[in-house]
Design goal:
single chain; Ubiquitin-like (UB roll); about 725 residues; Beta Polymerase, domain 2; alpha+beta; globular; 5 domains; 30 helices; Hypothetical protein af1432
């Protein structure tokens, strides 16, 4: 037997015995080996070592034959002359479908930049369609992280950052603890090498002392359980992984010595009753630390994790976390979803059935399935989808109950509004109040884990208001509220646009009236398809009613006439050749300057002012200086559809005066793919720090997303757009 294949065979042969399955896996190995012949990895190893390593990782998780075959072949279509038709003929359509999903993901560059939202979305949708795709991708990423030293430094950092942002959280949600911990530790080594090695040194410094402490406690507990008739048990000891220590030290500001659960003892027993019996013995013989007990057996984590957790003081004066669970619970704790759906010969497997079972067990996975269905809508916003997944699923850490006992996951700080929209968008739109633990509460009340929440609705409700956007914490709720408000506002603006146009038609004393055909003929470049859409654009001030009337009656307007009538704004679908990105109808090369007093950016409502020198100065409509200018010199201007430049904008950020405050802000700005042009920081006597940032952004939408990201920093009190640097 080929030695490389034997390394895989020795793992999967512990649970796959069927001769036909073994032969198919071996066939896949030799097919991949032949196709990758002559290809080498950056590390200098033959390329075939990579798919074999990926398959071994999956075999340790108990993955089925088709998953292992797909893992062995996951790169052949992308990197060789093999086709999906070849894979289907040689193996099966199921294998081909999984490889197709993995191949599509492999072609995407996943970064934390908003511009990559489409790629993230594709990954998540692929995951929703078949969880085997993401399992293979996670195993692929794990092996790549193990061999990352061969990559250039810039790619190391990009891949490691992506791992921390996307893959490790997904592994956590799937309950793949061992893989998640390894991904985090290996990524941290490249993202924060100094801190990684500092923590490693701290762990190593007293390694012998800690090992002795662990062994002494294990011995004490071993005797304790034996003396009290706990017959079947196993005790393990461990030190917390480096990344979890890093988070507590550098993100939560705790000293290394103050981390209670740095050392952990795991007690594995044969049944649930023995878990609670062992807990009673531990608390009776060691000093428990108040408020450090958690019962994840009675209320499992959303990733199916079950265990009893408590922190105690040993007889030697050392703090230990003690975890107590059954053997089945321990398997789930390390292997997550894979432990529940590990391949067992003789079992009747159905991909659809397994997907359904996973969605039933993993509530967040069911949420992803629903989100993915919505995302397939042509009008779905990729960035909104990604933000919803990251904020509301990956980062969910508050667990509340419906009156029927159903667990709902929400992000920290979530309110009854977030809860209502998680139930259904109609519930959120018709919400008029809420009760928490049978008490009426304000709709902006912060929910806590364990709360029982009920929503009161009314058919007479007028729906959410703009103020709700400031109250909600989940991206899902905000997106649903914006959709409702946009729809409601669109109806209002459409009617306003119609009224404005009809008023202009009356003023022109014409019996002509625009039609859908007229609209498509004259405004197709602006992607306006019918009359209602034209009314809407007029209502938004994107299209001038005078322009519509002019096109309708065929009248020509001279430049002088146009300026006298206050040149109308247009939204022609053209590329701007102007450095400012501003369009003025009737003028091909106008002299334009953006006002320094208000720094307008694309997305702002704007107006132009004809200076005495003849140039046009563009102000925001909300600029106070605009009110002091002569109406006779005010003209309408508009933003070009496509602008190839960035604009300065000033942010004023106030927050807690902590050493890392400025660092956290700048790091968040960089992660948002925004450049900083200038920066200053001042701290007052009240220990409040005010940071002024001059950033270069593309448009108002990007600025609003940046503000939202900065607001997520725990030490930030307020973020607002400012007009003055000093």
């Amino acid at each position: 037997m080929d030695l490389l294949f034997k390394s895989l065979f020795d793992v999967f042969n512990t649970y796959i015995k069927n001769e036909a399955d073994v032969k198919n896996i071996e066939k896949a190995y030799f097919y991949a080996r032949d196709k990758h012949q002559g290809q080498m990895r950056r590390s200098g190893e033959p390329y075939i070592t990579h798919p074999v390593a990926v398959a071994i990782i999956l075999a340790h998780l108990g993955s089925g034959p088709n998953t292992l075959i797909a893992a062995l072949l996951h790169d052949v279509v992308e990197d060789t002359d093999a086709t999906f038709m070849d894979i289907t003929k040689l193996f099966s359509a199921d294998v081909s479908t999984v490889i197709d999903g993995v191949t599509k993901l492999s072609k995407l560059e996943f970064t934390v930049e908003p511009s990559q939202a489409d790629n993230h979305q594709k990954m998540l949708i692929a995951m929703a369609k078949d969880i085997r795709v993401i399992l293979i991708k996670i195993a692929d990423r794990l092996h790549n992280m193990r061999t990352l030293d061969s990559m250039p430094n810039d790619r190391q950092i990009r891949i490691a950052t992506e791992t921390l942002e996307i893959y490790a959280p997904i592994a956590h949600k799937l309950g793949l603890f061992l893989i998640k911990a390894e991904l985090e530790d290996r990524a941290l080594k490249y993202v924060e090498p100094n801190k990684y090695y500092e923590i490693s040194r701290l762990i190593q410094a007293k390694k012998e002392e800690r090992e002795n402490s662990i062994n002494e406690v294990i011995e004490d507990i071993n005797e304790l359980l034996k003396d009290n008739s706990i017959k079947s048990f196993e005790i393990k000891g461990r030190v917390k992984n480096i990344y979890s220590i890093y988070k507590k030290m550098y993100l939560n500001g705790r000293a290394f010595e103050d981390i209670y659960d740095l050392l952990a003892i795991r007690i594995i027993v044969d049944k649930v009753e023995a878990c609670y019996q062992s807990l009673g013995l531990i608390h009776a013989n060691f000093t428990p630390i108040p408020r450090r007990f958690k019962d994840y057996i009675a209320v499992p984590k959303p990733n199916l994790y079950q265990s009893l957790h408590t922190t105690v003081l040993s007889h030697q004066g050392t703090l230990f976390e003690v975890q107590i669970r059954t053997k089945e619970m321990d398997e789930v704790a390390e292997m997550g979803v894979a432990a529940h759906w590990a391949y067992k010969e003789g079992k009747n497997y159905s991909k659809e059935k397994e997907q359904f079972e996973i969605a039933q067990k993993l509530k967040w996975y069911g949420e992803l399935l629903k989100m993915s269905e919505d995302a397939l809508d042509d009008d779905a916003d990729s960035q909104d989808f990604v933000e919803s997944f990251k904020d509301d699923i990956l980062n969910a850490n508050v667990y509340v109950f419906t009156p029927k006992g159903e667990v709902i996951e929400l992000p920290k700080g979530a309110t009854p509004i977030d809860f209502a929209y998680r139930i259904h968008s109609d519930v959120g739109n018709k919400m008029v109040g809420a009760t928490v633990n049978n008490k009426i509460v304000p709709i902006d009340s912060e929910l806590k884990t364990g709360d029982v929440v009920s929503v009161r609705t009314s058919k007479a409700s007028i729906g959410p208001s703009e103020s709700w956007l400031k109250i909600t914490k989940s991206s899902h709720a905000r997106n649903k509220i914006r959709t409702f408000l946009n729809r409601k506002n669109a109806e209002k603006l459409t009617q306003q646009g119609k009224d404005i146009l009809e008023k202009e038609l009356n003023a022109a004393k014409t019996d002509e009236y625009p039609t859908d055909e007229f609209t498509r003929k004259h405004f197709s470049k602006q992607k306006i398809k019918n009359l209602d859409e034209l009314f809407l654009e007029i209502g938004k001030n994107n299209i001038s009613a005078k322009t519509v009337v002019t096109k309708l009656i065929g009248a020509e307007i001279s430049k002088d006439q146009f300026l006298q009538r206050q040149m109308e704004r247009v939204s022609k679908n053209i590329r701007s050749t102007s450095e400012t990105g501003i369009i003025v109808e009737g003028l091909t090369s106008p002299q334009i300057k953006l006002a320094n007093c208000c720094n307008p950016i694309p997305g702002d409502e704007i107006s132009g002012y004809v200076s005495k020198q003849g140039g046009i100065i563009v102000h925001s409509l909300h600029c106070p200086n605009l009110a002091n200018l002569s109406d006779k010199r005010i003209i309408e201007v508009s933003w070009a559809i496509e602008i190839n430049r960035k604009f300065p904008s000033i942010l004023k950020i106030i927050g807690n005066s902590k050493p890392d405050f400025l660092f956290d802000v700048v790091k968040t700005v960089n992660a948002s793919n925004v450049s900083v042009a200038e920066m200053n920081s001042q701290t007052n006597q009240s220990l409040e720090t005010t940071i002024k940032l001059k950033v270069l952004i593309e448009d108002k939408n990007q600025l609003e997303k940046l503000i939202a990201n900065i607001q997520k920093i725990s030490d930030v009190y307020s973020v607002e757009r400012d007009t003055q640097w000093n």
